């Protein structure tokens, strides 16, 4: 469930197909995101899941899986 | 009506240049949020003038150097108008003195209102504009930030800071359809310059190729251009409005 929602937000943010987004995809290397895309995406996810992602944690979120795990552990 | 239906926030719009910008935007069809920090009656008069153009206008008190107050203001304007299309960071003060006599307090005060105020508003509004994928931010710097001025090291530092800030944010937000530019006024007749002696005014005027001090409306015309679609391909620039004083 969380993965699907995250997938949807990423697709929306980056204008790509949900099918291209897997748990292993790296935002920058595989999905072509730039640093501002990531900030925007995390802001959208914070709103969606009603969580706070501190900057120190945000830096560690490299792949889609990292984000899904973070949300699972902090919801 | 270059700004029909747009919403603009102008900081320090109760008097001087900010007032002229707010009224020129209202005349061009924009709804205007008139920010001020202490001149309530003057701010209310600006609103009364603005609504004559058939737009919505309101006063919003906030100290630009206080991030929380700024964030609340942005939220209030967004809730009321649904978008924020234009931000003008105009609020500013001077506390002139020779460096040897300048107190730390006067340095901090000028930095906090001019420089940090611009940071506060730009940061808070950029969240909104990035989502909109559109916006115009106009920062009022000064020619003093480019050429320096004896007796204004605090003010010149803040204004030079605003120019560097403008260029950096223009680079960060360009891909999101947001234009960020600065205006550097020269010698403009407002309360800020009314304190200067006739002799100094004359000296200034002599150094201006167009041989007159500027009017707040001269600056407002440039702000209107930078707020309108006519400047869609311009970002990260500093436009001097100074009668040719600096070139
Ligand atoms: N006049 C010039 O020759 C000249 C030249 C170059 C650049 N500039 C710049 O142009 C801008 C406007 O200057 P001006 O000549 O119009 O000055 P002004 O007539 O003294 O007006 C300053 C405005 O800023 C507001 N303000 C001051 N502190 C504030 C705060 N903490 N929070 C919110 N608003 C605040 C004032 O509102 P309240 O009265 O309500 O506090 C007032 O509306 C400034 O950034 C100035 O540095 C002016």
UniProtKB/TrEMBL annotation, chain A:
Annotated keywords: Cytoplasm, Fatty acid biosynthesis, Fatty acid metabolism, Lipid biosynthesis, Lipid metabolism, Phosphopantetheine, Phosphoprotein
Gene Ontology terms describing biological process: lipid A biosynthetic process
GO CC annotation: cytosol; membrane
Pathway, per record: Lipid metabolism; fatty acid biosynthesis
A molecular-function term among this protein's GO annotations: acyl binding
Superkingdom, natural source: Bacteria
Domain Carrier: 1-75
Annotated localization: Cytoplasm
Record PTM: 4'-phosphopantetheine is transferred from CoA to a specific serine of apo-ACP by AcpS. This modification is essential for activity because fatty acids are bound in thioester linkage to the sulfhydryl of the prosthetic group. 4'-phosphopantetheine is transferred from CoA to a specific serine of apo-ACP by acpS.
Pfam families reported for this sequence: PP-binding (PF00550)
Family of the protein in this entry: Belongs to the acyl carrier protein (ACP) family.
Designated name of the protein: Acyl carrier protein
From TrEMBL, chain B:
Pathway(s) of this molecule: Lipid metabolism; fatty acid biosynthesis
Positions annotated to bind NADP(+): 12-15, 90, 155-159, 188
Pfam families in alphabetical order: adh_short_C2
EC identifiers of the protein: 1.1.1.100
Residue ranges the record marks as coiled coil: none
Matching SMART domains: PKS_KR (SM00822)
Top-level EC class: oxidoreductase
Family: Belongs to the short-chain dehydrogenases/reductases (SDR) family.
Function: Catalyzes the NADPH-dependent reduction of beta-ketoacyl-ACP substrates to beta-hydroxyacyl-ACP products, the first reductive step in the elongation cycle of fatty acid biosynthesis.
Record's subunit section: Homotetramer.
Protein name: 3-oxoacyl-[acyl-carrier-protein] reductase
Source organism of the structure: Lutispora thermophila DSM 19022
């Amino acid at each position: 469930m969380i993965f699907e929602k995250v997938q949807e937000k990423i697709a929306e943010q980056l204008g790509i197909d949900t099918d291209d987004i897997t748990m292993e995809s790296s935002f920058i290397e595989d999905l072509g995101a730039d640093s501002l895309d990531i900030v925007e995406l995390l802001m959208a996810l914070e709103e969606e899941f009603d969580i706070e992602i501190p900057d120190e944690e945000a830096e560690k979120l490299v792949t889609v899986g990292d984000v899904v795990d973070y949300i699972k552990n902090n919801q | 009506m270059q700004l029909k239906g747009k919403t603009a926030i102008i900081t320090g719009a109760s008097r001087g240049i900010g007032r002229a910008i707010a009224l020129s935007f209202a005349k061009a069809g924009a709804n205007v949020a008139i920010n001020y920090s202490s001149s309530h009656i003057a701010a209310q008069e600006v609103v009364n003038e603005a609504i004559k153009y058939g737009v919505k206008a309101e006063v919003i008190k906030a100290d630009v150097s206080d991030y929380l107050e700024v964030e609340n203001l942005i939220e209030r304007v967004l809730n009321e108008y649904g978008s924020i299309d234009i931000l003008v960071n105009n609020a500013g003060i001077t506390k002139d003195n020779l460096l040897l006599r300048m107190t730390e307090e006067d340095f901090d005060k000028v930095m906090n209102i001019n420089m940090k105020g611009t940071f506060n508003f730009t940061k808070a509004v950029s969240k909104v504009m990035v989502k909109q994928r559109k916006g115009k931010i106009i920062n009022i710097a000064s020619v003093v930030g480019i050429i320096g001025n004896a007796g204004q090291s605090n003010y010149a530092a803040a204004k030079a800071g605003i120019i560097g800030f403008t260029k950096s944010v223009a680079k960060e937000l360009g891909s999101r359809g947001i234009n960020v530019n600065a205006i550097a006024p020269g010698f403009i007749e407002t309360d800020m310059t009314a304190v200067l002696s006739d002799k100094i005014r004359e000296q200034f005027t002599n150094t201006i190729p167009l041989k007159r001090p500027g009017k707040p409306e001269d600056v407002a015309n440039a702000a209107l251009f930078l707020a309108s679609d006519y400047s869609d391909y311009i970002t990260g620039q500093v436009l001097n409005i100074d009668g040719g004083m600096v070139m």
